[in-house]
Amino acid sequence: MAEAQGAERDDEIGQGETAEGRPSRILEDWHARYDGWLGAQVRRRFSAQAGEDIVQETWLRLAAFGGVEAVRHPKAFLLRVASNLAIGQARRGAAAERFAAATAPTTAAQADQMETVFFRQIVLDLPQPLRDVFLLSRVGGLTNSQIAEQLGISPKTVEWRMTRALARCAAQLRR
Asked: Residues 62, 139: one domain?
């Protein structure tokens, strides 16, 4: 009786095929039947460029999946696996783009703007008397005598304040 059951089992599986080989036989059958259909569906729903990769990855995932014998609707199952893979690829791509945008090197214009803000902050951090002399000299283009006359201080005080302002700016730049 045990031999009769073993013979029936062999007939279910196929000639000379073992129970372990059955899922691969099912996958071979599915591949022969549905590969073209799956490729067309994926290319139509997603992109032609990604279509081949998704189809190939679908078959690889199914090869690793142990329960293909229990699948009743192979087309729906194949399409769901392919769709999940495509969605996963899109999410990874979007995440990679967000990361690239967040870590993108600054352009020359952005670098110039950041530098301008940095220098402006250094000047604004100067004490008022030093800042006035510095701005009249470097931005206004006035001489020490003209600055002294405009601020009502001596030219020697203008020179002293300018020296102090430049020293503070240089110290900030070294930081």
From this structure: no
What is the rounded distance in angstroms from the CA atom of residue 29 to the CA atom of residue 102? 47
Q: Are residues 64 and 133 in the same domain?
A: no
- Domain holding 48: CATH number? 1.10.1740
SS3 17: coil
Question: Residue-wise over 41-57: b if at least 16 C-beta within 10 A, else e?
Answer: bbbeebeeebbeebbeb
Q: Which domain holds residue 134?
A: 108-170
Distance CA 152, CA 10 (A): 111
pTM, entire model: 0.46
* Those residues with Cβ within 8 angstroms of residue 37's Cβ, 6 or more apart along the chain or in another chain: 75
Which of 24-28, 51-55, 114-118, 155-159 has the highest average model confidence (pLDDT)?
155-159
N-terminal to C-terminal alpha carbon distance within the chain: 91
